[in-house]
């Protein structure tokens, strides 16, 4: 038993009351009965001999195929060459290897299989328990020494690749991974991520779970230990620990856990005016910031919990405090400072007699509030810039492993990676994929796909879980779902006779064709509607972009006029205000006029020089844009995206 299995066993046992009792070896006969049998002198194992008798008559089957009958007649007459009106050119090329023996047509000691028997032969060499669902190459090697028909390699490959069980249970070497799409926020508590950790070992206070909430903008974390993860507990935490302390939030991001999807929790979100959004199923990166916090909190707790692991909930407030009061590389400061606009006084500062950072001593409340307000405005800008730079770096790091060459379209049949494992099942025997599903819609980012099952139930799935599923046309499974043919119960009849007895093939195939036609028609209508909506949205966006571009160009022209009229007298203040409000536009105007006003404000000149280094010149439209957020400004100013701008962005 592995350490993981042993750990899970101890975890389950911790939830129940039990006692250990020793059982003597001569009484403990259940675990290993065969090793303790002493009174049996001889054990006789009786086996039934199963005979496999085929009822397939190849003479009869070949005579049902008109083309094979024609070839037999041509061979018996010795006519050559064969015309394409008599048989296909493919058979003409094989003529030298064809012969008839005992009224059976062979191709170099291989039986020529009539077209209506191809699927039966393929089934026996691939689908049965003796064939073992081997791959196309192995199946072809097994077939080509005993049977022949035209285009056999292509048929074998198509048959094996469209096998339902092979597609569901086999491991896949192709792993799809879409490029990173970052979540953008511009203010505190705009988006909050919520998630649970656990179950951990039950503490002396009765807690086994941890709920974590993270503000996406400031990275400020709130959390608590809980005894359950019910919708009521989740709603209480959201209201008391976030809404009551920090105010309303715009959006709440979570997974699709039952506690987050419960009506109680949805009612609370509607009451406080919060838009409840969720990740797709089994896609933790959709709530990546919260998942990253979870990954950091667990080692924190592990370093301080006792040997019995039953006091971890006492350290939760301290762990959250430590996380919020230390430097966060993404925002370039501590989450506490990002949220409250000032550094906190840590316990270490008190112990080391350094309680108040320099410049925080004041007796004037109004002055403190004013300074705090100015600092907060400046902090928001710094956080946005640092976060944008960090997201670029994170995207570059993540996208190195992107594998998104597989393209999906509406109407495609797909399968999804299966991450669920039923209780009591063996992971090796659980399907690796689920399907088939049909893609009914795709979001504009080509990341989230709406899938429709054969029962018309829908679900949304991320691109990373998708793989193509190949439907085998015109084939009906001859083994009922959930059954396994054992040797002792194998019937003494051919597979073809089973199909004729159990299924009316024409009725089944016609019904399936009609149903598929209705589904395809429905999907086509939906696709046309979505494309029309997408086209209308693109037109509206183009109109908005053109309005933004004109407004931006007008600002530049107005500023050029102001800069051209600058005097060395009293226009210094206006220039300073211009730089503080719109530095990019100001530098663009200065570059257009070719003059930089001489001012006595050294700080302003230094700011101009520093800001100039952060800008890049677009060779297409001659406008400047910031390197960090260059593409956004460039798109407002220039109608085309130039290679230089893309490289800088």
Number of strands: 16
Let me know the average pLDDT.
Answer: 76
CA-to-CA gap between the ends?
A: 52 Å
Helicity, as a percent range: 40-55%
What is the global morphology?
extended
Number of helices: 23
Percent strand equals: 5-15%
Main sheet makeup: 5 strands, mixed
Q: Rg to the nearest angstrom?
A: 36 Å
Indicate the low-confidence ranges by residue numbers: 38-50, 475-506, 566-576, 594-601, 639-649
User: Order of strands in the sheet with the most strands?
Assistant: 7-6-5-8-9
Architecture overview:
The protein is an alpha+beta fold. The chain has helices at residues 3-13, 58-63, 66-77, 89-93, 118-126, 136-143, 152-161, 164-169, 231-246, 258-261, 263-271, 288-302, 316-324, 335-340, 347-351, 365-399, 495-502, 505-564, 572-581, 583-593, 602-613, 630-637, 643-648, and strands at 98-101, 104-107, 111-112, 147-148, 191-197, 209-215, 221-226, 251-254, 275-278, 413-417, 433-442, 448-452, 458-462, 466-468, 615-617, 624-626. The strands form five sheets. A five-stranded mixed beta sheet has the order 7-6-5-8-9, with helices on both faces. Helix 9 packs parallel to helix 11. The longest helix is centred in the C-terminal third of the chain and has 60 residues, at 505-564.
Short description:
The chain is α+β, with helices and mostly antiparallel strands. The chain has 23 helices and 16 strands.
């Amino acid at each position: 038993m592995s350490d993981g299995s042993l750990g899970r066993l101890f975890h389950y046992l911790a939830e129940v009351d039990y006692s250990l009792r020793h059982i003597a070896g001569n009484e403990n006969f259940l675990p290993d009965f065969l090793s303790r049998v002493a009174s049996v002198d001889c054990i006789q194992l009786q086996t039934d001999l199963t005979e496999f008798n085929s009822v397939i008559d190849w003479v009869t089957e070949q005579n049902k195929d008109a083309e094979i009958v024609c070839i037999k007649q041509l061979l018996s007459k010795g006519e050559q060459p064969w015309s394409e009106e008599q048989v296909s050119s493919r058979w003409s090329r094989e003529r030298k290897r064809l012969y008839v023996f005992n009224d059976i047509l062979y191709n170099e000691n291989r039986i020529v299989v009539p077209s209506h028997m191809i699927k039966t032969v393929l089934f026996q060499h691939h689908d049965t328990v003796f064939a073992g669902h081997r791959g196309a190459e192995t199946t072809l090697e097994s077939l080509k020494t005993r049977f022949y028909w035209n285009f056999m390699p292509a048929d074998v490959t198509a048959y094996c690749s469209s096998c339902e069980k092979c597609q569901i249970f086999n491991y896949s070497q192709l792993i799809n991974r879409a490029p990173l799409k970052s979540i953008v926020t511009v203010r505190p508590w705009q988006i909050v991520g919520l998630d649970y950790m656990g179950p951990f070992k039950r503490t002396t206070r009765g807690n086994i779970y941890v709920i974590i909430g993270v503000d996406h903008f400031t990275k400020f974390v709130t959390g608590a230990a809980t005894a359950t993860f019910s919708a009521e507990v989740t709603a209480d935490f959201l209201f008391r620990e976030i809404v009551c302390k920090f105010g309303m939030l715009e959006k709440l991001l979570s997974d699709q856990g039952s506690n987050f999807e419960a009506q109680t929790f949805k009612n609370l979100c509607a009451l406080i005016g919060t838009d409840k959004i969720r990740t797709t199923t089994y896609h933790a990166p959709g709530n990546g910031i919260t998942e990253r916090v979870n990954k950091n909190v667990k080692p924190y707790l592990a370093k301080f919990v006792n040997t019995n692991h039953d006091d971890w909930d006492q350290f939760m407030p301290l762990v959250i405090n430590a996380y919020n009061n230390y430097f966060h590389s993404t925002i370039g400061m501590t989450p506490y400072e990002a949220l409250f606009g000032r550094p906190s006084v840590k316990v270490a500062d008190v112990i080391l007699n350094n309680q108040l950072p320099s410049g925080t001593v004041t007796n004037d409340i109004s002055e403190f509030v004013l300074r705090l307000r100015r600092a907060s405005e400046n902090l928001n800008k710094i956080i946005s810039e640092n976060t944008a730079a960090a997201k670029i770096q994170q995207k570059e790091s993540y996208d190195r492993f992107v594998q998104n060459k597989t393209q999906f379209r509406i109407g495609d049949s797909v399968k999804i990676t299966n991450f669920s494992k039923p209780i009591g099942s063996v992971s090796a025997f659980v399907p690796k994929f689920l399907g088939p599903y049909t893609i009914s819609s795709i979001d504009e980012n080509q990341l989230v796909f709406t899938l429709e099952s054969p029962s018309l139930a829908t679900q949304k799935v991320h691109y990373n879980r998708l793989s193509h599923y190949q439907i085998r046309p015109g084939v009906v499974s001859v083994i009922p779902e959930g059954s396994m043919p054992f040797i002792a119960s194998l019937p003494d009849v051919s597979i073809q006779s089973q199909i004729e007895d159990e299924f009316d093939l024409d009725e089944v195939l016609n019904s399936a064709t009609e149903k598929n036609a209705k589904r395809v028609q429905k999907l086509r209508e939906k696709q046309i509607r979505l494309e029309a909506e997408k086209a209308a949205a693109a037109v509206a966006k183009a109109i908005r972009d053109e309005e933004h571009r004109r407004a931006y160009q007008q600002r530049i022209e107005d500023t050029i006029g102001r800069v051209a009229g600058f005097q060395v007298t009293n226009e210094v203040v206006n220039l300073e205000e211009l730089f503080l409000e719109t530095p990019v536009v100001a530098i663009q105007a200065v570059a257009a006029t070719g003059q930089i006003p001489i001012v006595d404000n050294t700080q302003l000149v230094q700011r101009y020089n520093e800001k100039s280094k952060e800008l890049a010149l677009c060779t297409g439209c001659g406008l400047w844009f910031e390197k960090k957020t260059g593409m956004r400004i460039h798109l407002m100013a220039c109608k085309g995206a130039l290679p230089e701008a893309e490289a800088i962005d």
